[in-house]
Write a structure and sequence with these properties.
Structural class: alpha/beta
Shape: globular
Largest sheet: 8 strands, parallel, barrel
Order of helices and strands: HEHEHHEHEHEHEHEHHEHHHHH
Strand content: 5-15%
Radius of gyration: 20 Å
Bound molecules: glyceraldehyde-3-phosphate, 1,3-dihydroxyacetonephosphate, zinc ion
Distance between the termini: 24 Å
């Protein structure tokens, strides 16, 4: 069933395991993601970023997607999550990742999202508070969970608690929860987005511990989120490069550090890059092992788009010729089915170990089966 993300994070917090959240960029990926969460009996948090919503609305220049395309994409993603997750035996939440405006939040809630992030982290503090508060006011009456962000996910900073630090200040995090009423907060503590996180990145676990501790003292039941948490498995990188890719300096977060922070108070762990890498590796292998597919009427163009930029590993940049399958899951022939399978297998291979390692494996029964309407009543009673 579909639930607000809050229900899933409440269980993760209570039983101290990490709930991974995965970015989705095709109907096939959504189908595969729900399936593997069901097999492993884990709650699922699937997410669509602003760019994914634009892309799933048919906008190939997805980094500059228009509002109408994002609205269409939010509905396409919402429909797919309902189709595969609506009657699934594990709770599934659909979450907007890095939403930038109330308009985007509204489009996603209309499309069936049960949770939204409003990322005001680049704004001055008071404006971030204001925007997040406005989103909470809008979303909570729908029972929809809200995640905010505080601190900038940037490079390596040693002076953790200094005024110049870009890391999250634990006391400001408490103030942010109090002023906004948000449910979850993305903190900056050493991770960053993408495949180039730096070799031997050390997560500042103490920031998560201090933040959680301060929250407990103030009676705040909120959740902490780790963004930029892909592990960038080195075999993926080596395999891609051995087939003609040119990924340089690609390193992720050591999985043991993520396991440790999950025990120390991080509740949600965001992963996107690992999925992109696995899907791209699988698709490259498909053409390597079946060179005749390079001339396929339905997926020949995909091959030339794939090889146009050896540094690219984001499938969205090379699947523009098969958007009917990507956006609606219509698989018109066997060649398309092979691409779909590559993407589904990529999702499963990258997701499954993380569900086990972060500890949400076999925990779905601990999550309260609560609908958004019921959560809305709860917020109303508690006045938040
Ligand atoms: O947090 C960022 C995610 O990796 C989403 O990336 O905006 O390119 O879809 P995207
Ligand atoms: P990665 O780039 O490390 O996968 O981060 C994903 C993320 O934080 C999505 O919000
Ligand atoms: Zn992120």
């Amino acid at each position: 069933m579909l639930v607000p993300m809050r229900a899933i994070l409440e269980a993760a917090d209570k039983y101290r395991y990490g709930q991974a959240a995965f970015n989705m960029n095709s109907v096939g990926q959504i189908e595969a993601a729900v399936h593997i969460h069901e097999l492993l009996r884990s709650g699922a948090v699937l997410q669509g970023a602003e760019a994914s919503n634009a892309f799933m609305g048919g906008e190939l220049d997805f980094m500059h997607g228009s509002a109408p395309a994002k609205r269409v994409g939010a509905k396409n993603i919402g429909d797919a999550v309902k189709k595969y997750g609506g009657s699934s035996k594990v709770p599934v939440a659909l979450h907007l990742d890095h939403g930038k405006s109330l308009e985007m939040v509204k489009a996603c809630i209309d499309g069936g999202y049960t949770s939204v992030m409003i990322d005001g982290s680049s704004l001055p503090y008071e404006q971030n508070v204001e925007l997040t508060r406005e989103v909470v006011k809008y979303a909570h009456p729908y029972g929809v969970t809200v995640e905010g962000e505080l601190g900038v996910l940037a490079g390596v900073e040693d002076h953790v608690f200094s005024a110049t630090s870009t890391y999250t200040n634990p006391m400001q995090a408490v103030d942010f929860f109090k002023k906004t009423g948000c449910d979850a907060l993305a903190i900056s503590y050493g991770t960053c987005h993408g495949a180039n996180k730096g070799k031997d990145t050390r997560i500042r676990r103490e920031i998560a511990i201090a933040t959680k501790e301060c929250m407990m003292h103030e009676g705040i039941q909120g959740f902490l989120v780790s963004h930029g948490s892909s592990t960038v498995p080195q075999e993926y990188v080596q395999q891609i490069n051995a087939m003609g890719g040119r990924l340089e300096n690609a390193f992720g977060i050591d999985v043991q550090q993520l396991v440790d922070v999950a025990k120390a108070g991080i509740n949600k762990i965001n992963v996107d890059t690992d999925i992109r890498l696995a899907c791209t590796r699988n698709i490259m292998e498909l053409y390597r092992d079946h060179p005749e597919l390079k001339n396929s009427p339905s997926i020949g163009r995909l091959y030339s788009d794939l090889t146009a930029n050896p540094k690219n590993f984001d499938p969205r940049n090379y699947v523009g010729s098969i958007m009917d399958m990507i956006m609606y899951g219509r698989v018109a022939d066997e060649d398309l089915e092979r691409i779909n399978d590559c993407m589904k297998d990529g999702v499963i291979e990258s997701i499954a170990p993380l569900l086990v390692q972060f500890g949400s494996y076999r925990k779905s029964h601990l999550i309260e089966a609560v609908t958004c309407d019921q959560m809305a009543d709860r917020y109303k009673k508690e006045g938040i």
